[in-house]
């Protein structure tokens, strides 16, 4: 059983950020963003795990194709999370809704499960 599955909230501590492409806060079409960091499941001074996340954006499309009540444009953001050994441990597909300034998950895939999110309603 994973550490996160045994407790409802399991914080992760970041020791160092080696690289952070800040442009991901206002993503551009067809662009790669990289985040490299060292994590630990609890406060400690050694044995942090180096990890890397690489996100690639697609092309802008009308947000109303996700849900009829959404307006403006949306941008696909696909991220791949790499562990210490360089192997992928998670793939996450999201979409950035420009007019709302939010990124919404669409699908995540790990070695143990696949999850899908849909938009039920927009208020």
Provide the β-strand percentage band: over 45%
Based on Cα principal axes, name the global outline: globular
Kindly state the percentage of residues in helix.
under 10%
Radius of gyration: 16 Å
Mean pLDDT figure? 90
What is the CA–CA distance across the termini?
A: 38 Å
Low-confidence segments: 1-5
Query: Count the helices. How many?
Result: 1
Structural class: mainly beta
The overall strand count is: 8
Report on the architecture of this protein:
The chain has 123 residues and is mainly beta. It has a domain at 17-93. Helices cover 3% and strands 48% of the residues. The chain has one helix and eight strands. Strands 1, 2, 3, 4, 5, 6, 7 and 8 form an eight-stranded antiparallel beta sheet that branches. Strand 2 and strand 3 form a beta hairpin. The longest helix has 4 residues, at 3-6. It is globular, with a radius of gyration of 16 Å. Residues 1-5 have low confidence and may be disordered.
């Amino acid at each position: 059983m994973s550490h996160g599955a045994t407790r409802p909230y399991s914080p992760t501590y970041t020791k160092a950020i080696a690289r952070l492409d800040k442009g991901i806060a206002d993503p551009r079409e067809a662009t790669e963003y990289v985040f490299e960091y060292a994590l630990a499941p609890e406060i400690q001074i050694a044995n942090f795990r180096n990890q890397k996340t690489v996100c690639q954006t697609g092309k802008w499309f009308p947000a109303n194709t996700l849900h009829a009540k959404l307006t403006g444009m949306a941008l696909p953001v696909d991220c791949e999370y790499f562990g210490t050994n360089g192997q992928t441990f998670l793939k996450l597909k999201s979409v950035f809704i420009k007019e709302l300034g939010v990124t919404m998950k669409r699908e995540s895939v790990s070695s143990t499960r696949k999850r899908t999110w849909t938009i039920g309603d927009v208020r």
